Amino acid sequence: MSDDNKHCLKLRRVGIDTYKENVAYLHRDCHLYRSAGFQALSKVEIHVDDNGRSILAVLNIVDDPRICGPEELGLGLEAFAQLQYPEGTPALIAHARPPGSISAVHRKIAGEPLDRADYAAIVREIAERRYAKIEMAAFLVACSEAGMDRDEVLYLTQAMVETGDQLSWNEPLVADKHCIGGIPGNRTSMLVVPIVAAHGMFIPKTSSRAITSPSGTSDTMEVLANVELPSELFNDIVRSQRGCLAWGGTSRLAPVDDILISVERPLSLDSPGQLVASILAKKVAAGATHLLVDIPMGPTAKVRTQQEAFRLRKLFEFVGDRIGLHLEVIITDGRQPIGRGIGPVLEARDVMQVLENHPDQPRDLREKALQLASRILEFDPDVRGGQGYLLARDILESGRALDKMQAIIELQGRNHSPPALGQLCHEVTAARAGVVSSIDNQQIARIARLAGAPMDQGAGVDLYCRLGDQVKAGEPLYAIRAEFPADFDFAREAAAADNGFAIGGEI
Question: How confident is the model at residue 258, as a pLDDT?
Fold first, then answer.
């Protein structure tokens, strides 16, 4: 960078969460605003000295000196954390060069397939924050609309793995499982991990928080224990217990995946190629050698037809084989929510009831968890094919899975003041007598989120009825639980407009 292109200002931390995007703030009266030709939404490069850490950021122009003054350069929380220098440090700002790989994005927009080098360059420059969100959106939409052939999905997966950290456990078999999502209450990981770990297999589980769902595995586990673990503690727990249930947000495993997801979600993009690359990159980076993928299929699930499910399974198998994963894909029933609780507290209740062999436990959650655990147990060469289910059931019914879960909870840090169930309760009732013929996963999840889940951990939906159940007119189908009146009213209004249940066939 030449001396003519760099300009010095004092750093200021701006308390704005820009979520996976570096944003810088320059006051309109700053002498550089017009003299150096800086414009709002342009990309700038910021560093402290020629040999120090540098970052790229999108520039915002402000008029309020409470955000930053004319002699200051404000940095949002994401950018300030990345630069890692204290407030007041003199920093240099310059125009950033455009990403060199943008020409490949233009070719993808035109419908051309990209090669390995193209994807490596695009992913590397996204990792370097050279892409603005609008440029990433163009890339994602092009991949979704033009489609990605299976080799392109492989190239994207490999590039995402290579631009982040990779864990190595020095274990011959490191198991993991993943569900592609879209089914409320499907909290099987919190049962599979203790069952598999109790058998002695290695299953270090890092999970996500909810983005568009009423709860993620980490949100539900956080009701019981701390999930934000430093890497050293995470490693110690996995080594001593053979398993763990932690949030993956503190790691740098395939970090470009997290950046792309932050753009995909507002656009409601979830193309098969992006989905497969996202999942497999994270699993390989986390050190998995054996992976079970759950694809729920149903009319209101992410995958709605058997043809779609088979096509997605083949894509998983193709990429998994070429990146060295022993991968098995199963297609499961996605016609309705799994378990009764939808929302962190309610889901944690369901999980503990299954682990405790409670007489009122949700049988569908128990059965699905046993089926998934059995397939993972059969990755163990000492477990004969077909014996995994009996083994998983014995581990659960004997209390060994509960003991393992309690040990993991203690080491992660038990939550001694768990959140309470939302105090506001409204029961949604059947408008007519008949048989429950369908349940809309998306609408039930929407109602739970409107009630406050997952931010309010005690909010959500408590299901009373399932597919095939006979109901009478006025009989409760589910309860909405909330903590705050405004959320409670939003959820009730949504349920009144569409309660997510279809009742057919008069009794």
Answer: 86
The parent domain of residue 73 ranges over: 3-95
Say what the pLDDT of residue 5 is: 45
Q: Is residue 55 part of a domain?
A: yes
Residue 352's pLDDT band, with cuts at 50, 70 and 90, is very high
Residue 506 is predicted with a pLDDT of 56
Read off the pLDDT of residues 365-408 as tens digits, 9 standing for 90 and up. 999 999 999 999 999 999 998 899 999 999 999 999 999 999 99
Domain count, the chain: 4
Q: What angle do CA 104, 106, 109 make, to 5 degrees?
A: 115
Q: Buried b / exposed e across 476-501, counting CB within 10 Å, b at 16+?
A: ebbbbbbbeeebbebbbebbeeebbb
Does residue 398 fall inside a structural domain? yes
Helix/strand number for the chain, H first, E second? 18, 18
The DSSP annotation for 326-371 comes to: EEEEEEEE-SS-SSSEESHHHHHHHHHHHHTT-TT--HHHHHHHHH
**112 with 88, same domain?**
no
pLDDT level of residue 2 (50, 70, 90 thresholds): very low
Q: Which of 203, 166, 210, 164 is nearest to 185 (CA)?
A: 210
- One domain for residues 140 and 184: no
Decide if 258 is inside a domain.
no
Residues 232 and 350 in one domain: yes
Identify the domain boundary among 368, 389, 412: 412
Instruction: Say which DSSP state 399 is in.
Output: T
Residues recognised as catalytic: 270
Q: What is the CATH number of the domain that holds 490?
A: 3.90.1170.30
Global pTM value: 0.89
Alpha-carbon span 499 to 477, nearest angstrom: 9
Asked whether residue 326 falls in the same domain as residue 395, the answer is yes
Q: What is the pLDDT of residue 507?
A: 44
Average pLDDT, stretch 159-174? 94
Compute the average pLDDT of residues 67-90: 94
Residue 421 · residue 451 · CB < 8 Å: no
**Residue 156, number of CB atoms within 10 A of its CB:** 30
Identify whether 271 is part of a domain: no
